[in-house]
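Many introductory courses stop at the sequence. We go one step further.
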Amino acid sequence: MSLTAKINKSLGKTRAKMAQAFQAVFLKGAAPDWDGLEEALLLADVGGETAGAIVAGVRAKKSTDPMAALREELIGILDLASPDLPVKVFVGINGSGKTTSLGKLGFALARAGKRVYVIGTDTFRAAADRQLEQWCRRAQIPCLLGKAGSDPASVLFDGLASAEGKKADYVLVDTAGRLHSNKNLMQELAKIMGVGRRVRPEGLETLLTLDAATGQNALQQMEIFQQAAQPSGLILTKLDGSAKGGIAVALAAKYGIPIKYVGTGEGPADLLPFRAQDYVDSLLPQKE
């Protein structure tokens, strides 16, 4: 299955939810129902402020093909670029798919012939180490796992300074899942990020994993993690089980941070590079 087909399939629930609404909005031979368009965007969890701005942008285009104008408006919001940096630190709340996303990306990079090294800084949950080890074993990737109870920031420092860390094309760093409301854990994350940026000041990016099914709550998570970790990219997971695919638009519009990858299933090949055009074409109802 192609990348486009996978994303198209994953966003099927969102598209099905919106299809009937869009048919009413863009009724042939009639003027567009702008209030209906805003409601359809809200149904996809785009959010009130963003939905209003999108409708205003589409109306300002005065296009004879409002659906094409909507597509252009959405792509303009989502088409954000950022460099592909060698050290990638994965952060997110418990259950967001953070460690799984790291494993899938490591698997893909290894299959592409890249030298990958994994550092596990979750020194409090033995289950996290086991999950990470399983992914590394499957992809035949070397990894460094911190000892139970050790300082996560020190584990990151040692890993980045090690021979394996220095010669790798990509270093993938797992962190403990943490509730965005826990101030102590967020302070610990800020310490980890501070160490990482001192060791690799030019080559480190922070990837925040967000579960698409959480909808607008993802914005709250983004707000808190931005303070502690300054994410430079997002991973939107579990799209295949959500009818809230529009949250990608809300995140991009509010924060201007690119979505780097999307999770479309449970298999090792189900983490895909994000492409704005493919995403928008899969989000909107299919043309008959």
